[in-house]
Amino acid sequence: MANRFTYYESPLGIITLQANEQGLLGAWFEIHTTKPDQLGIQDDSFPIFELVAEQLNRYFAGEVIQFDVPIAAKGTPFQQSVWQALTTIPYGETWSYAQLADAIGNPKAVRAVGLANGKNPVSVIVPCHRVIGKNGKLTGYAGGVERKQRLLVIEGREED
């Protein structure tokens, strides 16, 4: 089962989408620090890409959206649990790393949660940008902190 990829032009820059028959493997901006080494075969007509593009279009238009695409991102069981918890953060809300650690039932794992959050391969759709420091400040984002801020503004958060 070969990986496929395509490019999506977002208002914040080009997003590379990668998928296989099981679902979306990755979505990242060109400057992301968490890109795979191998993309696979470029296939702009791969069926999941149309679904992802339609939902991203609605998201970037400012519509409240809960993404509904199959995710097949590869990671450790711990990373998978963190990424799953990220999908439960409501649109327009932010959580601290401590809240995310609590959500996975491991309140002492704040640093490990931060590392797993930073390795999320499915940017925007698995909303790692909704995690902020406990002091309410924006912290690192693999796609750039300024892009993180713009994603939060799209979701209705006031600029700091």
Automatic annotation (TrEMBL):
UniProtKB keywords: Cytoplasm, DNA damage, DNA repair, Methyltransferase, Transferase
Methylguanine DNA methyltransferase ribonuclease-like domain segment(s): 4-72
InterPro entries: MethylDNA_cys_MeTrfase_AS, MethylDNA_cys_MeTrfase_DNA-bd, MethylDNA_cys_MeTrfase_DNAb, MethylG_MeTrfase_N, MGMT, MGMT_N_sf, WH-like_DNA-bd_sf
Domain Methylated-DNA-[protein]-cysteine S-methyltransferase DNA binding: 77-156
Family, per entry: Belongs to the MGMT family.
Additional remark text: This enzyme catalyzes only one turnover and therefore is not strictly catalytic. According to one definition, an enzyme is a biocatalyst that acts repeatedly and over many reaction cycles.
Name used for this protein in its record: Methylated-DNA--protein-cysteine methyltransferase
UniProt organism field: Vibrio toranzoniae
